Amino acid sequence: MSAAQYFFRRTFISIIVFFGASIVIFCLARLIPGDPARIALGPFASKEMVEQYRELLHLNESIFIQYKIFITNLFQGDLGISTYTKRPVLIDIKSYFPATFELVLMSVTLMVLIGMPLGILSGKFKDTFVDHISRVFSLLGVVTPSFLWAIILMLIFAFWLPIFPVSERFSETLDPPKLVTGLLLIDSLIEGNFHFFKDAVAHLFLPGLAIAMPAIGNVARLTRTNLSDIYDKQYIEFAKSYSFSEFKIATKYALKPASIPTVTIIGLDFALMLGNAFLVETVFVWPGMAKYGVEVILAKDLNGIVATALIITTFYLVINMVVDFVVLLLNPRISFKD
Amino acid sequence: MKISYLFKLITILLVTTFSINTAFAKTILRTDEAAIGEADPAKATDYVDSVLMFNVYDALVDEDRGGSGGLNPLLASGWEYTSPTTLKITLKDGVKFHSGNTMDADDVVFSYNRLMDMGQGFSFLFGSVTDVKALDSKTVEINTAEPYAPLVASLIRLAVVDKDTIQANTAAGEYGDNGDYGEAYLLTTSAGTGAYKIVEHDPNVKTVLAKNDNYFQGHSAKSPDEVIIKYSVEAATIKTLLVRNEHEISSMWLPNEVVAALEKEPNVDIIPIPRPGAWMNKLNNRKAPFDDVHCRRAIQLAYDYDALEKSFAVTDTLIAGKKSSGPLIPGLLGYDANKPAIERDIDKAKAELAKCKYNPSDYTLDLAWIAEVPYEEPWALQLQANAMELGFDATVTGLPWAKFTEQVASWENTPHATVVSVVANFPDPDGLLYPQWHSSTGGTWMSAEWANDPELDALLEKGRAETDANERIKIYQAANQLIIDNAITLFITDFVGMQPVNTAVSNAQTAGTLTGYGTMGRNLSFRELEIN
Question: Is position B178 within any domain?
């Protein structure tokens, strides 16, 4: 099977998974107790108004008809109106997704920049003081939930040491760059506005680190385990006997195979963070999609729930495909047939 | 020593790299509220919606500060009843909308029609109005089906919108010739006459308001140039921001421990704000044993109001609740600040119980609190303990709001007692008393008592028809006493909000501005605040 055939096969399977997920999400959203129309219009709205609103939302139709309407509108790029924000859901997603995506990108960057070196150091200096420190740090990272890291980091770097900003994506005194991608770091660079870039990085750092901390621990532990296994292999001994440099052995012969499981975990964590950023977004007043996703559930905003869940589903599917391709590149023993 | 130097060096490097210049060219006031913020005045129902409404839009009338329930003309220059069912209102000259258009009678009529056609927000206040028409550009006539005295007070909730601007920005929609009535347009902007205009609005994130320099009432000299309202900010974040001088006014919904911690900060003051609302335990008046007035009186006299008030203590000196003296709360016409609070008297309670036709040991009381509001639970537990003192058995249940509103539709399914809060939407007692205690209104979350008291019905109907303010005060004070005497509802406490305010705005002017109103959201008037 060629790479192109593999790609089309995976895409086809992903589309089927997407539709399956859409049916499950669509039905589950309707199991949440409470009348979406009543919640949207508030306790003072008359029964007639609530009934009229239910008609507008097609809530009196059977679930099959409702799904048909939803899927037809989806193909026309219409995700419906959010009963929570009273705006088209597409506008909500466009507003909130870039903020979460940028935050998660920062987290993944920190996860790779901190987690992998930590794991490499730990694996290379196995059972030394460096390894012990690294393992304690990794364990703390894994067992402490992100929202607690958010509070701890805020307490240290914003309350006791007022170094980092603690709310929103940029300072209120600055004018944002013209939005091209919605990612402020990129948009400010496009505009050549380095002052804003620095400000946006400062705003991203604490929430990004809070989300990344458990993943940093994961990546470090996994890299350490894999690396120490690889270092026990005969071919590493063989390379050492040929007097290859430590750096060459580490980068060329040890790290590449050791990073295959790590890449898979990074990919899955990347997708996971998108949905799990809720509490961190709440703590840092981050105008993101994860926070929106939870709030639409609480408000039983059916269109908002389904749209948010489908965005995250799509992200999972895409990331899974990308990870599989990267693993193929890293490990030539795996073929497209596998 | 070396580690200490290294730590300092890292700190300095981080500060110089990431610290943000906070020297503002314009004065900014930052505050926060619970999401979501509704910018369209025809859809506003909640606290922050009201704050936006009162700062961005004006109504025909305004509330008199001081908690008297009095009214002043705002966009109106005056009003008179030409018959018991016809109110004639004259408008001020030269009031401009944010667009520069001049406000006139057509705008008032359009605003009324828009509110009623959309049928959301505070439209329920105008159910008795039959029509609103412009007699000329400066005169509006409002007709009601029957004499309706609260009409003028309820006009505080009719925000006047700019007809021409909205019509110029109307998209296709469900309201016939009126398209979407400018719904999409007002999602992100404003079309009012108010002291501030919306420059940015995301209902789930924040609203940015800019000063309307042409506001007809003017602003205080140091009022903020810009106001940023952030939505649903975590308490820990608010605390950090306030201490760092990056937030000026917090919402009143912070946990008690955070408020107590903020009180110790030198740059934060806590301003207690009597709010137009109350916590109540609504007794089901139709369900045995509370269909007997003596059983209700017994439980009313047994409820430990001292313990309830203590449960609101933030610190030794700050208490976020005040013992109630009945349904008339501060800010409403007829409220008497000198009226003694309802007190516990267990001996009298037992004496009342002896007159009750039911044997308490035969009944298990179903006491509920709203599951989404966990701090209500202790007040239900307190009632359980006091009911058990009288010999009743009682269970306490956290009832999800949706479930409660379903159950309350029939008196058989309505719990024996349910803790809820009510807030005044406009400064007239009718708005709070009639929907809760008139026998025709049973079956809503507000009327979980299923009250059925002919004497009270007569008083509430008389209060609705009487236009003389002094007579109305007497009527509502009599209704207040009757509700207590017949123990229709148990009153937990009146609301007292704890508003943490940065010392940059915490001055006598601010404290005065934030207090003394009987309408939800009216107190936070940004144009009257002074920021240093």
Answer: no
Q: How far is the C-alpha of A281 from the C-alpha of A308, rounded, in Å?
A: 15
Q: Which two tokens stand for residue A6?
A: 């593999």
The kind and range of the H/E element at A74 are: helix A63-75
The answer to whether residue B62 is domain-embedded is yes
- Give CA–CA dist B453/B293, Å, rounded: 11
Same domain, B159 and B297: no
State which of B131, B146, B167 marks the end of a domain.
B167
B318 contacts B325 by C-beta, under 8 angstroms:
no
Cβ burial of A31 (10 Å; 0-12, 13-18, 19+) is exposed
Residue A195: Cβ within 10 Å count = 11
Residue B221 is assigned to a structural domain of this protein: no
Is there a single domain that holds both residue B282 and residue B138?
no
pTM of the model: 0.86
Q: How far apart are CA B342 and CA B281, in angstroms?
A: 14
pLDDT digits (tens, 9 = 90+) for A176-220: 999 899 999 999 999 999 999 999 999 999 999 999 999 999 999
Max CA pair span of chain B? 87
Instruction: Confirm if A223 and A119 have CB atoms less than 8 A apart.
Output: yes
Q: B240 and A163 in contact by Cβ < 8 A?
A: no
Chain B residues inside the 8 Å CB shell of A166: 237, 240-241, 244, 246
For chain B, count helices (H), then strands (E).
16, 16
Least CA distance to A56: which residue of chain B? B174
Which residues of chain A are within 8 Å of residue B204 when distances are taken between CB atoms? 84-85, 92, 96, 287, 291-292, 295
Pick from B11, B18, B121: which is nearest to A202 by CB? B18
A179 to chain B, any CB pair closer than 8 A? The answer is no
Instruction: Give the one of A86, A163, A166 whose C-beta lies nearest to B187's C-beta.
Output: A86
The angle, 0 to 180 degrees and rounded to 10, between the axes of the packed helices B256-263 and B235-243 is: 10
Exposure on the CB side of residue B454, measured as CA atoms within 13 A: 0
Mean pLDDT of chain A: 89
User: With a CB-CB cutoff of 8 Å, which residues 8-47 of chain A face chain B?
Assistant: 33-35, 38-39, 41-46
| ipTM of this complex prediction, to 2 decimal places | 0.83
Q: How far is B9 from chain A (nearest CA, A)?
A: 13
B-proximal residues of A, 131-170, CB under 8 Å: 151, 154-155, 157-159, 161-168
For the segment B257-284, the average pLDDT, to the nearest whole number, is 93
Domain limits at B108?
47-167
B226 has pLDDT over 50: yes
Closest CB to B120: pick one of A41, A95, A198. A41
CB-nearest to B22 from A96, A173, A205 is: A173
Residues whose CB is less than 8 angstroms from the CB of residue B3 and which lie 6 or more positions away in sequence, other chains included: none
Instruction: Check whether B530 has a pLDDT greater than 50.
Output: yes
Q: How many folded domains does chain B comprise?
A: 2
Residues forming beta bridges with residue B366, ordered by sequence position = B395
The per-residue pLDDT for B444 is 86
Q: Report the distance separating Cα A152 and Cα B244, nearest Å.
A: 17
Residue B330 sits in a domain of what CATH number?
A: 3.10.105.10
Closest in A45, A162, A295 to B244, CB measured: A162
Chain B residues with CB-CB distance to A46 below 8 A: 119, 124
Judge whether A92 is closer than 8 Å to chain B, CB to CB.
Answer: yes
Can you tell me which residue has the tokens 């009022």? B223
Cis peptide leading into B289, omega within 30 of 0? Answer: yes
Is A172 in contact with B228 (Cβ distance < 8 A)?
yes
C-alpha span between A97 and A288 (Å, rounded): 6
Interface of A with B in 259-288 (CB under 8 A): 282-285, 287
Q: In what order do the strands lie in the sheet with B86-91?
A: B76-83, B86-91, B139-144, B129-136
Q: Is residue B256 part of a domain?
A: no
